[in-house]
Amino acid sequence: MTSSLFRPDLAVISSLIPEGSRVLDLGCGHGDLLAMLQAKGCTGTGVDVAPDRVLACLRRGVDVIELDLDTQLGEFAADSYDFVVLSRTLQTVHKPRAVLSEMRRIALHSIVSMPNFAHWRNRLRLLRGRMPMSKDLPFKWYDTPNLHHTSLPDLEPLFSKLDMVIDRRIPLDADGHPHKLGNLAANWAASSSLYLLHAGR
């Protein structure tokens, strides 16, 4: 994860979380989001599997646990947080459906963001016979941590199947800012999309 200086989307996520909330940040990287939320009086825990990122969180005073998102989210009790955040990480886990299901159990509210494989630049590269590369998909095909690619119309039914209700969809541009077109032609225009969800229970 890069610094929040280069992640305007983290400011968008922070704006969606009320002051004083308990937040679990899955795939927290260097703890940029949680450090931002501390200024709002939120308490939080980060989760990451990479020892260097865990150490970076500890050095800046961010509470963090080293766990595997695919297999160890059962360590968290039901409704133990107000919000669970999964930012640009869903595409890297082996079992996206299971991870989302665990998020729904751990907190009433979830925030999920994910690159949009159907963005127009990605479509153009495919038409040219090349694998997509962009700011949201910056890796060569042989060196990518991304295991799953999806479009917005493919991602959103999965939320519905898991009884995760979409409260807001915020399409983002390549720099992580809310897209100026909003939800107009989002599957074509958005480089990635951010979702505020709540568990239907």
Automatic annotation (TrEMBL):
It holds the Pfam family MetW. CDD domains: AdoMet_MTases. InterPro entries: Methionine_synth_MetW, SAM-dependent_MTases_sf. Signal peptide: none annotated. This is Methionine biosynthesis protein MetW.
